[in-house]
Structures are given as C-alpha cells and as structure tokens.
Design a protein that fits this description.
Elements: H1 2-12, E1 17-25, E2 29-30, E3 35-36, H2 50-58, E4 63-66, H3 67-78, H4 80-84, E5 89-94, E6 98-104, E7 107-108, H5 140-143, H6 145-157, H7 162-167, H8 176-184, H9 188-212, E8 216-220, H10 227-241, H11 243-248, E9 264-267, E10 284-287, H12 298-305, H13 312-323
Parallel strand pairs: 1-4, 5-8, 8-9
Antiparallel strand pairs: 1-10, 2-3, 5-6, 6-7
Helix pairs in contact: 6-9, 8-9, 9-10
The structure holds zinc ion.
The site of zinc ion has 6 residues, from loops.
Length: 330
C-alpha cells in the first residue's frame, strides 16, 4: 500500500497539494498507537504497528482509523448524516465481518483505547457459530456476507436446499449476491437465510437503539445492497425488542423534535462499489491547485477536512485517487 501511495504522490504532486494520508483498517485498532490486536478477519497481523510502519515507510504523518469509523465519518460528512442534519449516528457495515462506527455530538466515539464501537462482536445468539474473536454467536457470524454464505453452505451440505445447491453446480463459490438473486427469484431457502440475517441484524440494532437513543442508524457494506430483503425482519425485531425505537420511530409519541423526524434506520447512502468513503479503505484528501497555501500539518488538515467542509472538487479528486488504490498489504 505504501508503494501505491508513493506512486500516487509522484503522479499527482505536480498538480495537487497533499493535505494528508488517512487509512481505514480492520479492527480492533489500538489508538492513538495505531496497533492492530488480533483482527478476526486479518490473520497474522496481531500486534502490527500499522501507524508506525506506514509513517516510517512514507516519512510523513498518517492518520489511521478503524474502517467502520471511516465509513461512519463518510455518512456523517457526506451521506445520510448530512442529508438529515444529525450530529450523532451509529453505523454497521456488513461485509466480510460486521464493523461499527459511532459519532456522538459530531465526534467519533473511540472509547478509552480506540476500540469503542465493536458492536459486530456483541452476542446475538449465545449458542451460535464461533466467531473469529473467540466468542460464539456474535453479530458478525450472524449478519455478515460471510455468515450468509456459511448459512447457505450448511443448508446445501445437509441436502435440504436443492435450489441453492444448483447455484453451486458448476463448482464455483457462492456469494451473498448469488443468494440475493436467488431470494429475489423466490428461492425459499435464500429468502429464509435473508430473513434470519435480518432478524439477527434487528436484534443487534434494537440493543444499540436502546443504549444510544440516536436519531440515525445506518446499515452499510456489501450486504446492505440487499436491504430490501433484510428490512422486513429488521423492523419486526426493532418493534419487538426496542421500546426506545417503538417510542421514537417517525410519527411516534416521542419523535417530535428529533432531527430527521424520529429514529431512522436506513441503508447507507454510499455504495461500497463507489470505492470511496463508504468503502472506507483509503480515505485521502487533496487540495485543488488553486489553493496555494500548503498546510504545514497534514494530519490537522485531514482531521479538519474530514468534517463537513470538504469541497465538492476535493471529493472528486478523492474518488479518482481512491479508485486507483485498492491495496491489501502495507
Ligand atoms: Zn466476535
């Protein structure tokens, strides 16, 4: 990844002024040290000093955050948070795992060591599958893309899902998208898997709503593209398990005066395929050449611009750069 960054710097440094380098990483990520600790979906990276290693290789300051924190920052600054005018929101990202980012009163909630917002590892089913974190039945093993595919594989293995088995008849691996297509075509097993996944997600969100009482909860990541399949069972669980939701959903007795018109639970505005903020893999902010004043503190510029003042042209530059920077190693 550092090689790719250096290549981009060489390519764009004549035209643009670099304001900062930001990296979204799978967690848990200890902050401010920027060190990884047993990341469940990144085997072999335990103890890796991500921040120190990148700053040493790039010889400049780097800002690191958990990927879900960067995703929620994106929704806050450029997505639904901006659209609804809220200063607090909670986001779950459903992908390989389940990430979580929380913004309270305009600030990312880091907790004491940067590991706040790990709701992907709250227990949904005490007797559920083993999670990479060591627990059983985490939201991550009940509502991620990996969980969807695993549930389908289990059904196929038991011989009880002939429709799904046909999807694999050519020997290829199943994806969550395959399952979504099968569900939309009426396959009962695929529909049941999405219903179960929505149920797990609803149970998790109900707990978060009861704890946080925020005006907005955003569901992002690749699985959120199938929000239409998840939403019915999500809202059944919210009504059943969260009295805070029941009281504060739009139109309910305690919703008046809430920004956004009540507790909102919505799919993310930023599609991960857009390879930008919602993907949260490589947020980088550039200044246009007409802004001639070079900021002496790249990190400070990154933090400031990561709020709502990012200019539209800067966003375009970010998209161009991020689109060319999908990396899997430091
Ligand atoms: Zn877990």
């Amino acid at each position: 990844m550092c090689d790719a960054i250096l290549e981009l710097l060489a390519q764009f440094s004549e035209t643009y002024t670099l304001a900062g380098i930001g990296v979204g990483s799978p967690g848990p990520l200890e902050l401010p040290a920027g060190r990884l600790h047993h990341p469940p979906n990144l085997p072999g990276w335990d103890g890796f000093h991500l921040l120190a290693e990148m700053e040493a290789r790039l010889r400049m300051r780097v800002a690191v955050e958990s990927d879900a924190n960067v995703a929620v920052l994106a929704e806050y600054t450029l997505g639904l948070g901006e659209q609804l005018g809220v200063d607090s929101l909670c986001m779950l990202t459903l992908g390989t795992g389940v990430g979580n980012g929380i913004i309270l009163d305009g600030k990312l909630w880091h907790g004491a060591t940067g590991m706040g917002g790990e709701a992907g590892h709250m227990t949904i089913n005490p007797d559920g599958p083993v999670c990479g974190c060591g627990n059983t039945g985490c939201l991550e093993v009940c509502a991620s893309a990996t969980a969807l595919v695993s549930a389908a594989e289990r059904l196929i293995g038991s011989g009880k899902a002939p429709g799904l088995a046909q999807l694999k008849c050519d020997g290829s691996s199943l994806t969550a998208l395959d399952l979504a297509q099968a569900a939309r075509q009426g396959d009962p097993d695929a529909l049941a898997i999405y219903q179960q996944t929505g149920r797990a997600l609803g149970i998790g969100l109900a707990g978060l709503i009861n704890i946080l009482n925020l005006p907005l909860y955003v569901v992002g990541g690749g699985v959120a593209e199938s929000w239409d399949l998840l939403a019915p069972s999500v809202f059944v669980e919210l009504e059943r398990r969260s009295y805070v939701y029941a009281l504060t959903a739009p139109g309910r007795p305690a919703s008046s005066g809430m920004p956004g018109g009540g507790t909102r639970v919505l799919p993310a505005k930023w599609d991960p395929k857009q390879a930008f903020w919602a993907r949260a893999s490589f947020p980088c902010i550039c200044r246009e050449p007409q802004s001639q004043t070079r900021d002496p503190s790249p990190l400070a510029a990154t933090e400031r611009d990561s709020r709502r003042q990012i200019s539209a042209p800067s966003r375009i530059v970010c998209r161009e750069i991020v689109a060319k920077s999908t990396c899997t190693s430091p």
